[in-house]
Amino acid sequence: MLEPQVQADLLLYRFYRIHITARRLVVQLFEQEFGMTRREWLVLSVLSEHEGVLSSELAGHVMLDRARTSRALTRLEGKQLIRRQPRPSDRREVHVFLTEEGWRVYRAIFPRVAAINRELASVLSPAERAQLDAMVHTLQARVHEMVTRSAPTGSTFDSAD
Question: How many CB atoms lie within 10 A of CB 122?
Fold first, then answer.
């Protein structure tokens, strides 16, 4: 990659443009067909991998602040897609689980999101996809190092987009 001369040359900007453009297809799917927001989908999909996680830890997994995570959980609970279960030893701590309906919705949406992902990547050869995957992994590790080094202890992510 050449040294960036303008914003359009910046790696972060290029990734952002891909994300925002492709996200429209995904958001349209779960907003129109399932009545969910992108944050609700994010929480639902993360819970499919971390079922029973403490609600206080969920914010870190979804990279949202606790207030936004809590609002998404409240909406998902109102839609009967999740249930909260207080920890018996400390009722201030709450475990979060998908309900049967939550699993049904997740299983209906995820294959379609994966199909969008496959279509996007279909312009790459299998070797290019493997190389891209390795490079993205390397970049994720690097940005984690950068954030860890620069962030004050206890700070959280806050994805407003």
Answer: 9
Burial 44-78 (b: 16+ CB within 10 A, else e): bbbbeeeeebebeebbebbebbeebbebbbebbee
Which whole number is the average pLDDT over 22-45?
Answer: 92
Spatial CA neighbour of 58 closest among 45, 160, 105 = 45
In the numeric block, which tokens belong to residue 115?
Answer: 């199909």
What are the angstrom distances between the C-alpha of 101 and each of 79, 111, 115? 9, 16, 22
pLDDT, one tens digit per residue, over 93-149 is 899 999 999 999 999 999 999 999 999 999 999 999 999 999 999 999 999 999 889
- In three-state form (DSSP H/G/I as H, E/B as E, the rest C), the secondary structure along the chain is CCCCCCHHHCHHHHHHHHHHHHHHHHHHHHHHHHCCCHHHHHHHHHHHHCCCCEHHHHHHHHCCCHHHHHHHHHHHHHCCCEEEEEECCEEEEEEEEECHHHHHHHHHHHHHHHHHHHHHHCCCCHHHHHHHHHHHHHHHHHHHHHHHHHCCCCCCCCCCC
